[in-house]
Amino acid sequence: DAKTTQPPSMDCAEGRAANLPCNHSTISGNEYVYWYRQIHSQGPQYIIHGLKNNETNEMASLIITEDRKSSTLILPHATLRDTAVYYCIAKDAGNMLTFGGGTRLMVKP
Amino acid sequence: SAVISQKPSRDICQRGTSLTIQCQVDSQVTMMFWYRQQPGQSLTLIATANQGSEATYESGFVIDKFPISRPNLTFSTLTVSNMSPEDSSIYLCSVYGIRDRANYGYTFGSGTRLTVV
Predict the structure, then answer these.
(1) Stretch B21-42: mean pLDDT, rounded?
(2) B1 pLDDT band (50/70/90 cuts)?
(3) Whose CA is closest to B71, among B7, B22, B17?
(4) CA B29 to chain centroid
(5) What whole-number percentage of chain B has pLDDT above 70?
């Protein structure tokens, strides 16, 4: 699976959009980009995934650059409950999840 | 997605003893995994639990220390054997199954917080 690089921490004001970047410059053509988050004392929660096209669901949007070397997870209106560690993972659909350090997002009032 | 019941949710154990953690899923799942999350760290995959056969362990984890069972498609156990304080971690069960194919997502249990004293 391709290595991913994320900033260790970010702050966001409540009600504003949170934009979490992820670099995956060595991603291969059959590897998807997955995003999970882990709220304190809970198991990781699936957010969204994509291959080439931008994706949106009820939780977030995923923007993948045309060259697929980076992506951005967007939480359109961050709330205090979105405070968590966000993990970006690039992997083939058949492989297991391998977690990196993630980004600790702090949503502030 | 699948619903996972993981027990116990937390425990405090004496060094040298063993603890068995249970993972029960509400539907048949294709794959079951066990992860460890040490304090302040990310998740590390321990092993893949295989139904009816020996688990597949990742580098650095061995069967004698972390025996795993998976007697059917909905249940698995992880035992942490001969515990030391270094085994204090959160242990998480994860599954991937038919219900998850729609989003290709993995579902995680709420974890077992283990403290070894």
Answers:
(1) 92
(2) low
(3) B22
(4) 15
(5) 91
Distance, CA of A19 to CA of B39 (rounded, Å): 27
Please indicate if any CB of chain A lies within 8 Å of the CB of B33. Answer: yes
Torsion sign, CA atoms B59, B60, B65, B68: negative
Interface test with A, best of B4, B42, B110 (most A CBs within 10 A): B42
Q: Residue B51: exposed, middle, or buried by beta-carbon count in 10 A (0-12, 13-18, 19+)?
A: middle
Torsion of CA B54, A2, A17, B37, to 10 degrees: 30
Alpha carbon distance A42, B107 (integer Å): 12
- Out of B31, B48, B108, whose CB is closest to A43? B108
Residue A37 near residue A45, CB atoms below 8 Å:
yes
Q: Which of B42, B44, B104 sits opposite A102 (nearest CB)?
A: B42
Distance (Å, rounded) from C-alpha B106 to C-alpha A79? 24
Contact call for A97 and B105, based on CB within 8 A: no
* Residue B46 in tokens: 């321990």
For residues B49 and A74, give the distance between their C-alpha atoms in angstroms, rounded to a whole number.
Answer: 34
User: Residue A81, SS3?
Assistant: helix
Please name the amino acid found at residue B40. G
Overall average pLDDT of the B31-52 stretch = 94
A38 DSSP β-pair partners: A85
Condensed to tens digits (0 to 9), the pLDDT of residues A11-51 reads: 999 999 999 999 999 998 889 999 999 998 799 999 999 99
Are the beta carbons of A96 and B48 separated by less than 8 Å?
yes
